[in-house]
Write a structure and sequence with these properties.
Blueprint: E1 11-13, H1 18-33, E2 39-41, E3 47-49, H2 52-66, E4 71-73, E5 79-80, H3 82-89, H4 93-101, E6 108-109, E7 116-119, H5 120-148, H6 155-175
Antiparallel strand pairs: 1-4, 2-3, 5-7, 6-7
Helix pairs in contact: 1-2, 3-4
Protein name: Excisionase family DNA-binding protein
InterPro entries: HTH_17 (IPR041657), SinI_DNA-bd (IPR010093)
GO molecular function: DNA binding
Amino acid sequence: MAGGTVHTRSRTFLPPSPSDFDALLDLSKFLEHHTEPAMLLGPDGEQIPLPLEVYETLTQIVDAMKHHRAVTVAPIDQKLTTQAAADYLGISRPTLIKLIEQKKIPCEMVDGSRHRRLVLGDLIDYQSKRSAEHRAALQSLVEDAEETGLYDVPAEDYQDAIRAARKEIAGERKAQ
């Protein structure tokens, strides 16, 4: 890439300092009001359209930084330690190890050691699959509730049923 640097490792960008935050807010407002992909303007006046994916990525980065969150850009083939992978997925390392042993997430062994490395793309695939499973399960619950007419029942009836169930459980505990 002429005149630029290609990064093959991850890089984290922190939200701007308070003195630069106003410029970020201006950019955020601009992006909110202009939903079509923008043009990149060079110092010599040359323009080039931003591809839709780049424009959407920019919008997400600006939104995250506007909410004072750092943003990490990483190649899809980046390898992570089991602890970093667990942190990425928001699960414990032992839970991740179980998923690896159950062959739900692939990993690579580091030559000559017991250490594992996971590819970021595999973690993203796992997340997508789990999200799809969760959406399907939720949809199934909604369909069951609709079929049985649960959405037609007043909230007070649910509250009464919960109270009755709690009393029943309390009575069973006292009997033990």
